[in-house]
Design brief:
Largest sheet: 8 strands, parallel, barrel
Helix content: 25-40%
CATH topology of the largest domain: TIM Barrel
Number of domains: 2
Shape: globular
Structural class: alpha/beta
CATH class of the largest domain: Alpha Beta
Strand content: 15-25%
Distance between the termini: 37 Å
CATH superfamily of the largest domain: Aldolase class I
Number of strands: 20
């Protein structure tokens, strides 16, 4: 088996470290410019330097996005930006625009270029074209089936790597090329400012066709006709591997540390168990399915991998997430049997919570006591981002995540 890379997103330095610790082979991040997640915290130059050092010390790669659709004003400063990235030595740049591609090739030819899914890579000729230009990897459009990806693999050079999304939010528009946000809010999705209007509530009317109605399922709250389900391929690792995919990519650079930890750890285990044997992978399927549903998610589907999505791939009654668990904090320090965390959600003394470890172990435990930053005993931690010392009947370790399982 050609063991695929597990590529995990991170929108901040703290989440980046979680991705590395919880099983990523590579992490992709965005800088303060040229990425398609402008509302994420993103990484300053110093943050990038710390992240790359942290990852490389642990044998993990770092990919940096520069995948906007560039205008003239973007191109003018791109060379300086790529020059600064060259000093940091990331492992790859993710680019969709040919002008940005040419600029990066000229400034930092030693850094791999991966062609973003935004470039609409839907056939083997396109993939071969990018390979001839010097691309090391092409990210498949999400509109491809596994059969199409396998044909691309069979008809492109072996030295060209194939990357595909295997988990996360699906976009209603073709390969993410959407104008809804720009039209409705003035924020351009293709410059990283998407406001996700596809998740809003709509009523449908076509003014020139009176009496002709588009069939819409709805309830008393309205309809969310553009609201697609999330992609989840945890039950289909063999098919992904057999299609020849080199890198399994997870969507979500704006997700929490708990989401990143849960998804990274679950797919890490799935890939490793399948590498051991398909029987081993199948034996653990109940755990894999239960765990992937413990993070925040919309209902799951398999996207385009087994054919075009149908009406069952949309969510019509709500735009809300399913909350399988709640992020309480990550252990920063342990002293005298107490764990220091920065509180992410309120919890209380005597409550049952869970210690989530990178190796796949989950330890149910009871909150025995709490102290605030002043050393005072408290019954709960209601203030966001407050530092809190937590005593539990099972002592966690630094780096463990504390969560409440629904």
């Amino acid at each position: 088996m050609n063991k695929p890379e597990l590529l995990i997103p991170a929108g901040s330095l703290d989440v980046f470290k979680v991705a590395v610790d919880y099983g990523a082979d590579a992490v992709y991040i965005g800088g303060e410019a040229y990425g398609l997640r402008a509302k994420a915290k993103n990484f300053s130059y110093d943050d990038m330097a710390q992240a790359i050092a942290y990852a490389h010390e642990r044998g993990v790669k770092v990919h940096v996005t520069a995948n906007i659709f560039a205008h003239n004003s973007d191109i003018e400063d791109a060379a300086d930006y790529f020059g600064s990235l060259r000093e940091l030595k990331p492992d790859a740049l993710i680019i969709s625009d040919p002008g940005m591609f040419m600029t990066a090739r000229g400034v930092c030819p030693e850094i791999e270029i991966h062609v973003s899914t935004q470039a609409n890579n839907t056939n083997y000729k396109t993939c071969s074209f990018w390979h001839e230009q010097g691309a090391k990897r092409v990210v498949m459009a999400r509109e491809l089936s596994l059969a199409e990806i396998k044909e691309i693999r069979d008809k492109t050079p072996e030295s060209l790597e194939i990357e595909s999304f295997i988990h996360g939010a699906m976009c209603i528009s073709y390969s993410g090329r959407c104008l809804l946000s720009a039209y409705l809010t003035g924020r351009d999705a293709n410059h990283g400012e998407c406001t996700h209007p596809c998740r809003w509530k709509y009523a449908l009317e076509e003014e020139t066709r009176p009496g002709q109605f588009f069939p819409v399922d709805e309830n008393e709250r309205g309809t969310y006709i553009f609201n697609s389900k999330d992609l989840c391929m945890i039950e289909h690792i063999p098919e992904l591997v057999n299609a020849g995919i080199d890198s399994f990519k997870v969507e979500g650079r704006m997700k929490t540390a708990l989401y990143v930890a849960t998804v990274a750890r679950t797919y890490r285990k799935a890939i490793d168990w399948y590498a051991e044997s398909e029987e081993c992978y199948r034996e653990h399927m109940d755990w894999l399915k239960r765990e992937i549903q413990s993070c925040t998610y919309r209902e799951y589907c398999t996207g385009f991998y087994f054919g075009h999505p149908d009406k069952d791939s949309q969510i019509y009654g709500s735009n809300t997430y399913v909350h399988g668990s709640t992020y309480l904090g990550r252990v920063e320090e342990v002293k005298d049997g107490c764990a220091l965390i920065t509180q992410k959600n309120k919890f209380s003394v005597a409550e049952e919570i869970e210690i989530m470890k990178p190796d796949g172990t989950d330890i149910p435990t009871i909150v025995v006591s709490m102290k605030n930053a002043d050393g005072e005993y408290v019954n709960s931690c209601p203030h966001p981002e407050e530092k809190i010392w937590v005593e539990t009947d099972a002592v966690p370790e630094p780096g463990d995540i504390i969560r409440r399982v629904s």
